[in-house]
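hey so i finally got around to running the thing on that chain from the lab meeting. sorry it took forever, my laptop kept dying and i had to restart like 3 times. anyway pasting the input first so we r on the same page abt which one it is
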Amino acid sequence: MTDPRPIPDPPPDPSPARPTRSETTATSAGAGPERRVATVDVGTNSIRLLVAQLAPRGGYRLLDDEKIVARLGSGMTRSRRLDPARMQHAAQTIATLRDIAAGYDVEQIRAVATCAVREATNRDEFVNLVERVSGLRLEVISGEEEARLAFLSVRAAFDLQGQEVAVVDVGGGSTEVVLAAGGMIERIDSLPLGAVRLTEAVGGAELEPSAALHRVRRLVKRTIRARLPKPDVAPAFVIGTGGTFTTLAAIQATRRRAGTTTPSGIRGERIDRSAVRRELETLNAMSNERRAQVPGLSRDRADIIVAGLAIVEGVMRRLQVDTLRVHDRGVRDGLLLTMTRALFPGATTGQPPDRRRAAREFADACRDGARHSNHVARLACDIYDALVEQCGHAADSLRDPVARELLECAAILHDVGYIINYTRHHKHSYHLIVHSELPGFSQRELELVANIARYHRRAHPSKSHAAFQALAPEDREMVRCLAAVLRIADGLDRAHSERVERVRLEVSERTAWFTLDAEVEPQVDIWGAARKSELFAATFDLEPRFVWSGAAHAGESAAESPR
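ok and heres what got predicted. didnt touch it at all, straight out
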């Protein structure tokens, strides 16, 4: 692979319209001399641009993300050649994207091409055309390199330690499958299956539905059996990248969150293989026009989504995996991470974000009082640990492996809504968190953290609250349990004085005894916790009682405060 090249002079007579869409996403940008770069990904179905500001420690801030559907690989199933008219259109598109990037004063642009150009017999002709029209030298990367870039992006977003996973990137012309253990690649397979290629191979998108699906599945099965070996150990789950996966997740998320203000984020979305099959069969029974009206499914993908989902279904079956998680980035993100490494050799890339650190940085950005929030987080974790040890059997949600971390992050963030106003700050906290796109969190996890923080005061979780009701039943139970803990922890620092240094919990029969370590009697904090303990009592069927550990040493009977 060639090194990134300095941005060349623009081609003659450029006249692109400035894009109106610009998305800003903060990862872990740090202080220092940041560098602006861009990537262009020339795929079988679309051409994408990312413009980003790289930070020395390894994060980046996304400045622009543009996609243009060019269908460069259309017709290659029969001819193995890129169509001249589509080549010209693609070259002009790349020139337009190059000018958008130039508007951000980027110092480097890296342009790569994947399956369609890689397999075309006239690829050199296209590469030369792109250089003449846009001034960019196109890198044609191998299927293995494409897979590595997608994997690098996944490894930076998901904690892969201690488990075997499969990263699957479904493109327009090919599908890359990476088997990994403990965050390290074990093998890479590139399959000649893509959403555009497969659609063309069976005769287009307008065949009689049952016949079309039968032909698609048969071709997928035959190709996978020949090109993808069964793994010795089935992966725990699949992590999917590419437009097929993100479209599937968008359809599911939009449907589930209809009627709420919760964003239809797809990062980390969990989908079962049975849901993939149902969606595949449902969409296959529709016409292209009807599919284009499905919320979450764009018109430019309506004709190829059935083929894409058939590939997903077939790969999951071959790998013996029942669950997938969706990654909303991929090859382009991997390119940015490799560019970061080249520009900042000391940068840490390819590692999952520190979620607690991300929460604290967001709280700092909202000018939230760090001492109070961090203290409440410590108290909440003390209570949580004791509950799990003594009565974890009473609430399955307490045993969820991420529950403690989500509680801690919710505690750190529970007061960020103060930046808007005090009166409704719990509700403002919810909206700020759920729309924050904090690195390292799936959208589901952000919704859980936001709901837990929202219920740290005032109303209890209720079916009348649309955002709460939109959660899965097991997630609603987790919110109830963790919000109950957070309310008491917040009450125990009612005066924001950090007077309660430690809380110990002992469950005896139907009573939860909270023993508070403090140098002087924390009367206000005991009062604050008692006032906020009703949700705890209702959720765990325990009567909370609060005592100061110093009462006995002061020669008094234990100062006891019932709810």
